[in-house]
């Protein structure tokens, strides 16, 4: 690696307020606010609106919304099949 061109990576606490969860990881992001972590060391803290602890995809609460039969409506509207093409055309 060339010296002086890479951002500094340091331990940072990301805190998800919606799920009341915090996790310690490395990041190049910084913050003026700090928090004392479980090991007694003070780290910069970054509050996030959503993380894997609160995102519906990761928590299993996501739903597939096809209540109006959108796929079937699409197939009825555009369901015409194109004529088969010859391999030698």
Automatic annotation (TrEMBL):
GO MF annotation list: structural constituent of ribosome
Keyword Calcium: no
Keywords from the named record: Ribonucleoprotein, Ribosomal protein
One example of a Gene Ontology biological process annotation: translation
Pfam families: Ribosomal_L31
Gene Ontology, cellular component aspect: ribonucleoprotein complex; ribosome
Record's subunit section: Part of the 50S ribosomal subunit.
Family: Belongs to the bacterial ribosomal protein bL31 family. Type B subfamily.
PANTHER family: 50S RIBOSOMAL PROTEIN L31, CHLOROPLASTIC (PTHR33280), LARGE RIBOSOMAL SUBUNIT PROTEIN BL31C (PTHR33280:SF1)
The name this protein goes by in its record: Large ribosomal subunit protein bL31B
Organism: Streptomyces dangxiongensis
Phylogenetic classification of the source organism: Bacteria, Bacillati, Actinomycetota, Actinomycetes, Kitasatosporales
């Amino acid at each position: 690696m060339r010296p002086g061109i890479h951002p500094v990576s340091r331990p940072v606490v990301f805190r998800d307020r919606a799920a009341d969860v915090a996790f310690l990881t490395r990041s190049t992001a910084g913050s003026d606010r700090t928090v004392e972590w479980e090991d007694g060391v003070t780290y910069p803290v970054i509050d996030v609106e959503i993380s894997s602890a609160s995102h519906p995809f990761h928590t299993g609460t996501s739903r597939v919304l096809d209540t109006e039969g959108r796929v079937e409506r699409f197939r009825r509207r555009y369901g015409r099949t194109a004529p088969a093409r010859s391999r030698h055309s």
